[in-house]
Structure formats: structure tokens, C-alpha cells
Amino acid sequence: MGEAGLDQFCHCQGCLGKYTLLRDEENPRLAMFERRLPCFGCGIGWSSFLLGFFCPLIWYFATTLYCCKYYNKDPRERPGLAASAIAVSFSFHSYL
Fold it and tell me: What are the counts of helices (DSSP H) followed by strands (DSSP E) for the chain?
């Protein structure tokens, strides 16, 4: 179906102020974040962090993505990738 124009939204008094548009005409980059993250909506970073408790090598993969600034493609990935990088530093220091 086509996108709804601005004139197709409800203008009744009950709806005023309760709903906002997801797209911003002034900044089209904001529409990029409407899509779901990969890995069941958690993102690669948080999925790697959780799976790293079973296989710590996955933390090293996520740390590599963090150092290569993979999060520039989608900034929502940054916290999960950073958590994996911190987990690597703690696991590395525990072996020393």
C-alpha cells in the first residue's frame, strides 16, 4: 500500500497530540532506524554479548566489529558491541 499523506491522518480533538509521525521530512536519516535490528531484534552486539557466555570467542568477534566502527552503519548497535568489548577486557585480565 502507498504511504499515507498528511491529510489522511485523523484530525479529531480526541487524537490531537497523542500520535506523532515516524518519518521526518527535514532529516530523512531518522527513517533509517524504523527497521528492526538483526538477530531477533536485539542486534549483533547484544546477541554476541549473550552468546559470548557460552563461547567467549564471539566476544572477540564483536570487539573487532566495535574497533572497526561497525556501529557507524547503525548507532543502535554501539552499546551491545561495547559490552562485548568490556567483557573481553575482563576475561583477558582474569587470565593474567
Answer: 3, 0
C-alpha separations of 42 from 21, 39, 60 in Å: 24, 6, 18
Q: What is the pLDDT of residues 10-25, one digit of tens each?
A: 566 555 555 555 555 6
**Residue the block writes with cell 593474567:** 96
Q: Encode pLDDT of 60-73 as tens digits.
A: 999 999 999 888 88
Sign of CA dihedral 25, 27, 30, 31: positive
Among 68, 37, 63, 35, residue whose Cα is nearest residue 49: 63
